[in-house]
Design brief:
This protein is an alpha+beta fold. It has eight helices and eight strands.
Length: 171
């Protein structure tokens, strides 16, 4: 949700055009919280909306930003202090939302400097040494976290998930 989600006053919404990810969010909402979700279309992107003020309040209590999420997001402390499996699970989800891969490198983009720092630290925790880059534009600052070479394979092994985005790394 930190990558492609948002909290509204009485709901939580996840935006993505990847059917597998949308189904996963629906499944987690039902299995973890016993909540039913609704599919909607928001302009050019599909979404899963879960109407629950309690879930929204829980996410905010855990550190999900109420406003300007893209500028204020960070990896929650419980994840940062968690096991390697916990860190890997978080990175898997965040990469699926805000990461991309080409034949030479993987990159995770963010508008939050704190998230860039947290991502670099979390990747280091699982044995990946990232490069970080800052890019200024007229509107705001963008941060990139990148890695390449043998570390692409290590990333795939550590985060191993059956999603097209990860399977490209094997090719």
């Amino acid at each position: 949700l930190l990558g492609d989600g948002t909290v509204k006053p009485r709901s939580v919404q996840f935006y993505n055009n990847n059917e597998k990810l949308l189904e996963r969010v629906e499944h987690l909402m039902k299995e973890l919280f016993g909540l039913k979700s609704t599919r909607t279309n928001a302009n050019t992107v599909e979404s899963v909306r879960t109407d629950s003020k309690v879930l929204r309040d829980l996410l905010i209590h855990l550190g999900f930003p109420e406003t300007e999420k893209s500028l204020n997001c960070f990896i929650p402390e419980k994840v940062m202090k968690g096991s390697e499996n916990t860190v890997s699970a978080f990175l898997r989800g965040y990469f699926l939302a805000d990461g991309h891969f080409n034949e030479y490198e993987a990159e995770i983009a963010t508008s939050s400097q704190q998230m860039q720092e947290d991502l670099a630290y979390a990747l280091t925790r699982i044995g990946i040494t990232p490069r970080v880059r800052r890019k200024e534009t007229d509107r705001n600052t963008h941060f990139r976290v990148r890695f390449s070479g043998d570390q692409l394979i290590e990333f795939h092994v550590k985060l191993g998930a059956d999603y097209d985005k990860f399977n490209q790394i094997e090719s």
